[in-house]
Design goal:
mainly alpha; coiled coil; about 110 residues; about 90% helix; about 0% strand; 2 helices; elongated
Length: about 110
C-alpha cells in the first residue's frame, strides 16, 4: 500500500487535472458557439447555391425573357428623353422669339 502522503499528492494532482479539463471544456464550449454561427451561414449559402443550380434553367429563361423587355424600356426612356429635349428646345425658342418680337414687357404674351 502507498503511504498517505503519496496518496494525498496524487489526489491533489488529479484534482488539478480535473480543474484543467473543466477549464478546457469551457473554452471548447465557447469556441463551438463561435463556430456554430458561421457554419449555419455557410449551410444557408450552400442551400441557396444548390437551389440556384437546381433551377438554373428557370433563372436562365427569366433572364432571356427579361432582355427584350429591358430593351423595350430602354427605347421608351430614350424616346421620352428625346421628346423632353425637343420640348425644352421649343420652349427656349418661344421665349427667344417672344422677347425679340415684343421688346416691351406689357406686349409680351
Amino acid at each position: 500500500m502507498l503511504p498517505a502522503e503519496d496518496i494525498k499528492q496524487a489526489n491533489e494532482r488529479f484534482q488539478a487535472l480535473v480543474e484543467k479539463v473543466d477549464e478546457m471544456q469551457q473554452t471548447i464550449i465557447g469556441l463551438q458557439a463561435k463556430v456554430a454561427a458561421p457554419e449555419s451561414k455557410t449551410e444557408a449559402h450552400h442551400e441557396t447555391h444548390e437551389f440556384m443550380n437546381s433551377n438554373a434553367k428557370y433563372f436562365t429563361s427569366l433572364t432571356v425573357n427579361l432582355i427584350p423587355k429591358l430593351q423595350e424600356l430602354d427605347t421608351e426612356v430614350k424616346r421620352t428623353t428625346t421628346n423632353w429635349k425637343c420640348f425644352q428646345a421649343q420652349l427656349e425658342l418661344f421665349f427667344v422669339v417672344n422677347e425679340s418680337l415684343y421688346p416691351h414687357d406689357q406686349d409680351r404674351i
